[in-house]
UniProtKB/TrEMBL annotation:
Protein name per its UniProtKB record: Phosphate regulon transcriptional regulatory protein PhoB
InterPro entries hit by this protein: CheY-like_superfamily, OmpR/PhoB-type_DNA-bd, Sig_transdc_resp-reg_C-effctor, Sig_transdc_resp-reg_receiver, WalR-like, WH-like_DNA-bd_sf
CDD domains recorded: trans_reg_C
Database matches in PANTHER family: REGULATOR OF RPOS (PTHR48111), TWO-COMPONENT RESPONSE REGULATOR ORR33 (PTHR48111:SF1)
Modified residues (4-aspartylphosphate): D79
PROSITE patterns listed in its UniProt record: OMPR_PHOB (PS51755), RESPONSE_REGULATORY (PS50110)
GO molecular function, one term: phosphorelay response regulator activity
Species this chain originates from: Paraburkholderia piptadeniae
Lineage: superkingdom: Bacteria
DNA-binding residues (ranges): 158-257
One example of a Gene Ontology biological process annotation: regulation of DNA-templated transcription
Length: 261
């Protein structure tokens, strides 16, 4: 098969298919909520309690940043407009750390520019206030599912995907390009992996939202565009002329076709 020229699998132990559904484990997770609106903070805390989360709430950006850097959290729920240090700066600082922390951004600002700024800084997802409680819970679950999927996969099949100078170690979440390590957020990694496992297949933005983000609400196509742009900036020699993640005009995106013999 042509595809095997772009992927090499090394199996160890009982294999777990990357496409197999993974149930969320019932476990206590530590979540940091940095939100200066006390009513929203308590609403978020209540919803997280229903997901078996231990929640720390801080309403000041400076204190929230210090806490986020002081110890690992399974998720940071982050407001954009905060006293002391704003959410964009907190997001930027967390993404400069080697340790990866999922970030769900909440904000009263709802323009496309604000959403893109948050995602460009490295937020994994974004909700504009006022938001649906059910949608908030769905977004949190989607982030936790991704983390669980990576952890469960690491215990099973060891897969190394190689395509020219791009190498993806699925279990270790290591990505290198031309031998240099590339630091990706969890969502960026999942998006790249989804493309690389399906070379040549064209995806619309709606399909990527459904299959990678786990929801397909209209109006969130900018989320896909932003993540594609960030991925290209990290893995492409020339992001304006991408070698790996290619645009199919009028349709969507695809990962490069595997080379033929």
């Amino acid at each position: 098969m042509i595809y095997t020229q772009c992927i090499r699998r090394v199996r160890a132990g009982n294999a777990v298919s990357p496409n197999s559904p993974v149930r969320m484990q019932v476990m206590s997770r530590n979540v940091l909520v940095i939100e200066d609106d006390n009513d929203i903070a308590q609403l978020v805390r209540m919803q997280l309690a229903g997901l078996s989360c231990e929640t720390t709430v801080l309403n000041d950006g400076r204190a929230g940043l210090a806490e986020a850097l002081a110890r690992p959290y399974d998720l940071v729920v982050l407001d954009l407009m905060l006293p002391g240090v704003d959410g964009l700066e907190i997001c930027r600082r967390l993404r400069s750390e080697r340790r990866y922390t999922p970030i769900l951004m909440l904000t009263a600002k709802s323009t496309e520019l604000d959403r893109v700024l948050g995602l460009e800084m490295g937020a994994d997802d974004y909700l504009a206030k006022p938001f649906s409680v059910l949608e908030f819970v769905a977004r949190v679950k989607a982030i936790f599912r991704l983390v669980d999927m990576m952890a469960n996969t690491a215990a099973g099949e060891h897969t190394l995907i190689e395509c020219e100078d791009l190498k993806i170690d699925v279990e270790r979440r290591d990505v290198t390009v031309r031998g240099a390590p590339i630091l990706l957020t969890a969502k960026e990694f999942q998006l790249l992996l989804h493309f690389a496992q399906n070379p040549g297949r064209v995806y619309t933005r709606g399909q990527l939202l459904d299959q990678v983000w786990g929801y397909s609400h209209s109006g969130y196509e900018h989320t896909v565009n932003s993540h594609i742009n960030r991925l290209r900036a990290k893995i492409e020699i020339d992001p304006n002329s991408p070698e790996y993640i290619q645009t199919v005009w009028g349709v969507g995106y695809k990962f490069r076709n595997a080379p033929e013999n």
